[in-house]
Amino acid sequence: MYDIFIMDLGGHDANVQTLAEQFPHAKIVRYYDNHLDTIRRCVNKARTPWVWIISSCCDYTDFDFDYRSPPWEAYQLHCWASGNQKFGDTFLINAT
Asked: Can you give the three-state secondary structure of 66-95, one letter per residue?
């Protein structure tokens, strides 16, 4: 399993609690200013070669956290949208 960081966007306390129970090894990270800076902080704290960064506003009921990037996509940022979101708030990142 890769490191998981729960990006707490605020206002979703119940979902943060649910995600923390579902992924007890995950770290909760507060969102500051923008996604890029928050993601950089997570990657800098990573202990595994890949990192999941998930968001407190998303429902991960049917999400596949077993996804593995094909080798030819190893250095791309992988991003998923959730529900009716215009932009994705779920990331799989190569931290090496």
From this structure: CCCCCHHHCCCCEEECCCCCCCCCEEEEEC
Question: From residue 58, how far is each of 12, 19, 55, 70 by CA, in Å?
Answer: 9, 10, 6, 25
**pLDDT tens digit sequence for 40-68:** 999 999 999 999 999 998 888 888 999 99
Q: Which is nearest to 82 in space by CA: 33, 36, 15?
A: 15
3-state DSSP helix/strand/coil % of the chain, to nearest 5? 25, 25, 50
Beta-sheet pairing, 3-8 with 90-94: unpaired
Burial class (CB in 10 A: 0-12, 13-18, 19+), 31: middle
User: Angle 42-13-39 (CA atoms, 0-180°, nearest 5)?
Assistant: 15
Length of the chain: 96
**Every domain of the chain and the residues it spans:** 3-94
